[in-house]
Amino acid sequence: MINLKYTIEGGNFTNAGFASSQVKKTLKQLNVSTKLIKNVVVALYEAEVNIVAHANKGEIDVSISPEEVKMILTDQGKGIKDIDQAMTVGYSTASQKVRAMGFGAGMGLPNIKKNVDLLTIESNVGIGTTLTMIKKLI
Amino acid sequence: MELNQVIDILNAKVVAGNASNFSVEKGFCSDLMSDVLTVDTDKMLLITGMSNLQTIRTSEMADIHCIALVRNKKATIEMKGLAMELGITLIETSFSMYRAVGELYASGLQPVY
Ligand SMILES: Nc1ncnc2c1ncn2[C@@H]1O[C@H](COP(=O)(O)OP(=O)(O)O)[C@@H](O)[C@H]1O
Ligand SMILES: [Mg+2]
Question: pTM here?
Answer without folding.
Answer: 0.98
